[in-house]
Every structure is written in structure tokens, then in C-alpha cells.
Amino acid sequence: MPNLSSETGSSRSAATHLAPQATPQPRRLRRLTAAAVALVALGAASACDSAADANDTVASGGTLRVVLPSLPEHLDPQRIAAAMDANISRLLSRTLTTYKAEPGAASSELVPDLATDLGRPSENNTVWEFKLREGMKWEDGAQVNCQQLKYGVERNFAATFDSGLPYAELMLKDNASPYEGPFGGKELESVSCEDAYTVRFRLKQPAGDFNYTVALPIFSPAKPGADADKEAYDLRPLSNGPYRVEARTAKDNVFTLVRNEHWSPSLDSVRKGHPDKIVFQVDENDPAVTNALIQDQGADRNTIMLQNNVAPNFLQQVINDPKLSQRAATGPTGSVRYFAINTQLVKNLDCRKALVYAFNKRKYRQAMGGSIIGDLATAMLPPGLAAHAKFDHYDTLVDSDGNEDKALQHIEKAKAAGVTCPDTISVALPDNDTIARYVKTMVDAYVRIGVKVNLKRYPADKYWGTIADIGHGNHLVYAGWLPDWANGSAVIPPLFDGQLVKPTGEQSGSNYSFLQNADIDKAIAEAMGETNAERQYKLWGELDSKLSELAVTIPVLYPNSIRMYGSNVAGAFIHSQFGAPDLAALGLKDPSIPVDVTSSAS
Predict the structure, then answer these.
(1) What is the rounded distance in angstroms from the CA atom of residue 597 to the CA atom of residue 66?
(2) What is the per-residue pLDDT across 456-471, written as a single tens digit (0 to 9) for each?
(3) What does pTM read for this prediction?
(4) Which SS3 state, helix, strand or coil, does residue 340 take?
(5) I want to staple 600 with a disulfide (CB 3.0 to 4.6 A). Which of 159, 265, 292, 420 is the partner?
């Protein structure tokens, strides 16, 4: 899912999931450079130490401080489409299923959450039934029940929530008259409550892994009436998790979670609920935050970088110092960093290929800290997925500096066909100095082929919604993708399915290339309908290769996470579903150390 942060943490995920799916397999480790091997080895050691901390030395209580590059775009679960927001939401809004809060391969293991089990499919996987645990409560003391879960799912159909993920609308059977949400008093017939604690879903098409889909925040319950003021609810949703949001305004760059006294740890096997408070503070100055954590004084001992990596100028110091390296949660994010090419503005294939060939991936990665930060990307399916196919249509692995000659050849080819490629392009990115420093490496690369680049920075907390509107007018957009589960169905459909593209003023999901290609749509439908797992993986890999040949994106990197934390923080590891430290597992060794949000990392 997406977050706005430094390079490795800024990933959005949301998969269109329409037909029978193979059960997601554990993610495989990607092929690594020597430097990356060292990094992963370091991450493994850190994860083991952190896991021991979480089990043996973490204490209950105290205040954990979490530094973010920007505020979460949404906390209302039905509006969440970003990995960072989903990570925070897991502390507030429980789902029918979720993932273990444990390091390593266990973090990809699905477990019951609101539900008593992982669901009971029937009728060829077109009907799914879940039994809710009894005794779970909202922060106001009211019981969580099936009708509230149904209402939460129904909210996805209201126009108010077009910023969220598309699963509910795409997967659940619609009413005879298109359903438009619960606010007019109508109900969605395909979600029914068999009793106060049993919910049944009827799907448009078979889905063998629907229980993975309901682990997403959009399938959280909502209490009717609590959301009367939609914008206020987005800032402070009613909680049924271990924490609730203290009063806040839209202007605050700090917000605090405090204990939900009605949360019962005996009814929640995943969330640890260790700290009394969790303070989230915005600070996009990565060097200052990293330096403060290296110094490890006062409140910084209780602090962790959630989305931002260690600043490049401190990276070698942190990795090579045995003590500092033990305070860095590291590992592959399982995501891909890329730039989407706007096919509505750059319609000619040769013009798009010129942009791909000219991109200097080596300089981009070097600005981030070098090879230790991740492997160069050639495909949109990350190597950790079984569907990943090996191809290199633009010679990235041969010459990562780009190929000026081939780029110019494609510009001339377009010219010969009567098409003039743009000589000035605009590139959208979040308003973040760290990200801007990386993206600026594009400027020199494109000057070499006679293309001027204008960088357009947008407010970070509104960025994903901005680039999902076909009217934004940029030729390229900075983007990233973290699959919601380990299959090509969690990458290709949400990023390239033409049915997601909407008119100006509406959200086009995560199809940031605004691609509408009948052949691609047909191939997506074929892959979604394939029930043989190995055959489906092959189809996704072939589709990825075809999309590369269409030059609709520029895959740049398969990033690693390197997130530093203070010496009093315990339980830090990179969770496979968020590509970042799992907030549900974090705690403090000594709860008596106070937190002042004006500490040296500010």
C-alpha cells in the first residue's frame, strides 16, 4: 500500500482482485548484490535481536515516538490506500483477518483477527462466511457486531470514499440497481448478517483467497452515526483496537494515540499494545533525524523512523558501526519504486521508450546511498513474487546509466512517423526534500536527449489522490507499489487495468499511467481466471514483460528498508506487508524515559 516518505517507504498498494486466485506463497528472497547481502545479513541479526527484545525485554507503558515524513493521508479505514496509513490503522481498526506481528517469514502469515478463523468458503469460492469474536468493544464501550462490519463494507460504495481501495466494488455482487453506499438508508445485498456475529459475502466471481482481501482496512467495521462528520472522522475514527486518537485538528503536525481502555488483549492475539502512548511527529529532515538517533539522547532514545531510511550521508556510518547497526531495522521491502508515464499525454510508443532508455538508474540509486539501498529494477513484479519474470528490455543490467543513443533513435523514429516527442516534461513528486534530491537526477539525464524537466511538488499528505486524477497534467509521476499479497494479481490489475481510469475530477485508482489497452485488459482477465497457480504465475510474468515493451512505466529499484531507532526501543523489524517497522510489535525497554516532542530530532 502507499506511504509518503523517503524513497523506500513511499509505496502504494491496492490490488484489483476479480477471479480465482492461487493461494499466496511465501515471498522468496531476491537475488542480491554483495552489498545487499551484507545488508540483509545485518537485517537478519537486527530482526533476531529485536524479536528477542520484543519477547524478553520490552516493558508495558511509556511513550513511543514515531517520526514520519508527512501525516497519514487517511485514518478512516474505508479511505486508506497507503501502506503507512494501513500500518497506523492496524492500531485503531481491526479487520476480519490480519498478519502476524512477528519478524521474518511469519509476518506474511495470515491469522484471524475480528473473526474466529480464516473464513469458510462455499459455492466454488463465491460465498465466504466469517464468525466474529464476541466481546470486542469500541472505544465508547459498545460491542462490535456484524451490522457494523456490514456498514463499514458498504461505505466503500459511497462517492465520498473514492480515495480508498477498489476491492469491495470490484469483488462483491452489486444490487440490481447500482449500490451507492449506506448514507441513503439502503443496504448492499451481497453482505448479509446471518446473526449478530456471522457475516456472509457473495462475490461476483470465485476468489480462493478472499480472506487475504478482508485483511485490508477497507473491510473494517464502522459504527453508524460515529462518522456523521466525514472529515472529522478521517482525522479521528472510532477505534476498536488497542489505541484511540486524542483530539486533533487538520493543522496539527503531531498526533497522539492513547490506550483504548475497552480493548481486551485476551481477544487480540496480534497487537501487543506495549506503550501507553504513541506520538507521531512529522519531520522530513532525514539527516537531522538520523543524526539525532545516532546521538541517542533524551527522548530520541524512544524514537523510531517509520518511513524514512537512514539519510544517505550517514548510511555507511550506521551500517559499519556494530552498535549503530544493531539499532537499524533492515530488510527488503518487497516493493518496486517506479515512475509512471502518463499514456494520455505521451501517447506515442517511441516517445515513451525514449524516456525509459534515457533514465539514469545508477545515478538515482547513488543519490540514495548506492547498491546497499536495493537492486535495480527491470520489471514491475518484485523478485520476491513467484510470478516475477526475468527480462531486461532496456538494458538496465548492461548499462544502468541509460542509453542516450537509443533514446535519440526512438525520438527520430517518432519524428519520421510525423510525431514530435515532448521537449519539455513535468514530473510529479511529493513535497519532500529527500525525494526531490533523488528525482533531480532525472534532470541531467533527460537534458542529454534534449528534454527539459520541470519538477512539480505536491503536498505529501494529498499526493496519491492528486496523481490518481487524470487531469493533473504531468508526463511522469513518482510512485511505488507494495503488493497486498504475494501474487501478480496484487500488482498488474490495480496498476494497469483500463476499467480503473476515470474522467478528470475522479480517482483512477492506482492506474497512474492511465493505461487503457484492450489487449492488456483481456490478458488481465485471462490471468485472473486461471486456476492453476504455476500457469497463473507465468501469465502475470508474460504480462509484465508486455507492459515493459509498451513503456508505460520506468521501474527503478527494488528497495531495502534501513530504519533507525533509539536504544530504548524494542521489537523493531521490517514487516513484509508494510515494508516498514510493524507498529503493532513496538515497545520500550524502560517506560520511565519521557518523550518531549520538541526533542533534537525535530
Answers:
(1) 10
(2) 999 988 899 899 999 9
(3) 0.80
(4) strand
(5) 292
